[in-house]
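User: Run a structure prediction on this.
Assistant: Running it now.
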Amino acid sequence: MKKLIPAAALAVALVVAQTALAQSTEGAVATAPGVAAAGRTVEAQATITAIDKATRTIKLKGPKGDVKSVVAGEEVKNFDKLKVGDTVVAKYVEALVVELKKGGGLPLGMTESTGAAAAKPGESPGAGVARQVKLVGNVVSLDAATQTVTLKGKTRTVDMKVNDPEQFKLISIGDQIQATYTEAVAIGVEPKKDAKK
């Protein structure tokens, strides 16, 4: 069963990322026989410059000085703990894993699952959301000259180029390819640091 991703958590993540894209870590592509994986992590920060409690609007300022507004919906727990000067930190992670399933047997098509978590009462404001999409297709054709695999899914047929000759040698007609894409966003608030006296 799907859980709905809180729109406010995604909105805050997008605003923070657009306002203060700070660090991006490209993950190396990892391979094993019949498996290839890649991923990356992006972390961004912004400072709360204003809060309108009546409309639940937060103004976020990035390190370059740009300011954006976001409305924190009712699903944002512990809103009353937010303070001007707090730092909002968003971390975005995405990964793709492609696996060869020898002999097949998996149901064709796409499945999607999502989940969300929010801060508990008394904790610092924060939220996390995740989404995972799995696609499965049957190997129906192989072109060794171009190292291209033709995959037939439930509704579409696509060609996929396999750049690694050793990986291509492992694939046979009748096998399946499963691609799993995962993305997750975590948002937290760091309290304002008191100035030293």
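The two ends are 53 Å apart (CA to CA).
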